[in-house]
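ok here's the first one, seq then struct tokens
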Amino acid sequence: MWKFSVKEKLEIVLRYLEGNEVAPSIGRKYGVSKTQIYSWAKLYSEWGIEGFRIKDYASYSPEFKLEVLEYRLKTKASYVDIAAHFGIPSPSPIKRWVKEFERKGFDAFKAKKKGRTSMNKETKKPTKQDEGSLEKLQAENERLRMENAYLKKLNALVQNKEKSPNKTKRK
């Protein structure tokens, strides 16, 4: 993704805010989407030039994320407006927070362990639900063994019949 300097962002936003040009035509000239121009304009109107100095890839606390979501519920504001209000450079993290919160609740915002998982092997004891499925698997395994043995015997009989001459004795 192309990174724009503070000066370039300010130039684009000021051209948009003057009202002589629309966001799509400005976007084509600078290679930026109209949505991004709207987002920058909101940031600029809320925070001034300092809005462009907000760091990308910031880490937000679970409490802050919850505060943002509560604000969204109270105001019914757009993601762009919410991002500008809280000084978040892009509305995309807010969209992701909403989806995570809808799926997992507040647990989605708890700190997660970083890095690789431990190499310790922990044996999982089967639960009552697993025991039923374990019995089903054992029954299916037994059925497949019997089927395999039947096919082996059938194959052996076919090979014996092919080897032996057509001399069948009648009794």
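and now the second one, same deal
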Amino acid sequence: MSNNAPPLFPSGEYVAPGHYGPNEKMVLVSELRDCPTRVRDAIQGLTDEQLDTRYRNWSIRQIVHHLADSHMNAYIRFKWALTENSPRIKSYDETKWSEIVDARQAPIGPSLMLLDGLHARWAWLIENLTDEEMSSTFFHPELDDNVALHQSLPIYVWHTGHHVAQILWIRSAKEW
């Protein structure tokens, strides 16, 4: 790719936190609660045409819908881990999901509203979980390993930042 090609990880690759404790949990919960605002700020003022601008393989519109899809799945994974003993989660092909007509063409308003409610509820849930509950796990078939909720939480906070950075990279490159 040329020097002007979008980077794969504009915010940097995910690096797991070295420590997880009550202070880290509260910082992550605050960041999780703020995720919808970060997405809204990144897309503020974009036209439909601009929302259809691609960052590598996905348009900004697809990125917003992907965040809603991904984080809905994550919330459900948390609930399964809290109610079952290391349940095997259902993975999904995010690329195929992004090719479905709603991800390609639907207005982003409903996904933004979904993110608002989902993140408010998810953050509240995590705030009220004990350390023992945050150690609950689900089995991720793609990783072939159990993942504890306290390991999953920072991944989804990073995930939002990763996609927001993609949107901001496009805006900067296009001078929007």
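notes on #2: The chain has one domain: 39-174. The longest strand covers residues 137-140.
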